[in-house]
Structure to design on (111 residues):
């Protein structure tokens, strides 16, 4: 059976995944979350997120965070925070969410 190149499942196109742990900036209510910046310290120093707790992805562990009901993870572009959130969800911890777009998404929220 040949692949249909216009088919999003088997062709060369991609299907956008809607993951329950991804939060779009337009849908985020920051009052519901403790914001956790998972960027490295030098990235945070260059462009800090006011009010965020910094816990770099390279040293991320849930026990290092202050207690909160839900956590919104933010990185530079959304990839690192998504990897962490996905992993935690796969292990049954549904308190962690990733902000789509990272720092740019946070800027859009604060306008």
């Amino acid at each position: 059976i040949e692949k249909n190149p216009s088919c999003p499942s088997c062709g060369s196109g991609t299907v956008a995944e809607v993951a329950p742990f991804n939060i779009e900036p337009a849908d985020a209510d920051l009052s519901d979350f403790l914001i956790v910046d998972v960027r490295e310290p030098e990235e945070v120093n260059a462009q800090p997120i006011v009010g965020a707790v910094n816990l770099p992805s390279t040293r991320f562990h849930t026990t290092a965070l202050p207690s909160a009901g839900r956590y919104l993870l933010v990185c530079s572009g959304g990839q690192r925070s998504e990897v962490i959130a996905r992993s935690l969800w796969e292990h049954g911890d549904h308190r962690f969410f990733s902000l789509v777009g990272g720092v740019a998404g946070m800027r859009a929220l604060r306008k």
Remarks:
- Strands lie at 22-23, 34-37, 53-54, 71-74, 96-99.
- The mean pLDDT is 87.
- The first strand starts at residue 22 and ends at 23.
- The first helix runs from residue 41 to 46.
